[in-house]
């Protein structure tokens, strides 16, 4: 293979800690062709476009430092929810405010909060708590770092204020977002796409759910979306989204858990992602 190093990133749909997700299927397939190809998986649960872009860019810079040539690198990402926003927080008062919120408001398990760009777990603490929603645990860096929030995760107050700056562009309960979040989401997509183009790096972009690309397409004529939309390299886009493809087959973890199960990831990889990458000659 002409490609010697492959970088993947995404949210929980591209989780490297789950051994049957599409990044692992891709790695296994590639290594049957060329066992010398190396991989850097930067996916993590809950992260949105900002962290997917930042971690991919960080991985690219790491590869350059190791002497990997740009033309030997491929970046394959899976974009997540447009409502997800990332903040770099090191103020201990805000960190404590967020910790207090975890135990008293809505419930969620978090893959590393206040993470770094390397998915490094050094110095990570774990908090477990119970509330009316159930038992949860949070992995977090007490010294701060990249914190991810979303429409339904608005702690502390300034995040809620940000969410409410503009009116929702969708009425879906599970993925409400405003026009600024859509702008920021697309901006990070274009940033990574164009960085790869600048250096001659092979780049392909998937979507975890249909609404990620559908909302962008729906608002392509909006004045703060259109100038970004016109930069999309449509030849790099993989369709359909993984959830869009496997959910009608019942290949999710459960009726309420929308994550593809092991069979779903394999079905998507075999039917959609692998044929796309074969057509693009990634494995030559």
Outline of the structure:
The chain is of the alpha/beta class and 284 residues long. It has 9 helices and 9 strands.
Structure description:
- By secondary structure, the protein is an alpha/beta fold.
- It folds into two domains: 181 residues, SGNH hydrolase (Rossmann fold, 3-Layer(aba) Sandwich); 65 residues, no CATH class.
- It contains nine helices and nine strands.
- The protein has a four-stranded parallel β-sheet with strand order 2-1-3-9.
- Helix 1 links the parallel strand 1 and strand 2.
- It is globular, with a radius of gyration of 19 Å.
- The N and C termini lie close together (5 Å).
- The model has no long low-confidence stretch (mean pLDDT 93).
Amino- and carboxy-terminal Cα gap: 5 Å
Number of β-strand runs: 9
pLDDT < 50 runs, ≥5 residues: none
CATH class of the largest domain: Alpha Beta
Task: Order the strands across the largest sheet as they lie in space.
Answer: 2-1-3-9
Main beta-sheet annotation: 4 strands, parallel
Q: Could you give the order of the helices and strands?
A: EHEHEEHEEEEHHEHHHH
Helix/strand/pairing category = alpha/beta
Q: Roughly how many Å is the radius of gyration?
A: 19 Å
CATH superfamily of the largest domain: SGNH hydrolase
Amount of beta strand: 15-25%
Question: What are the salient characteristics of this protein?
Answer:
284 residues; alpha/beta; Rossmann fold; 4-stranded parallel beta sheet; 3-stranded mixed beta sheet; 9 strands; globular
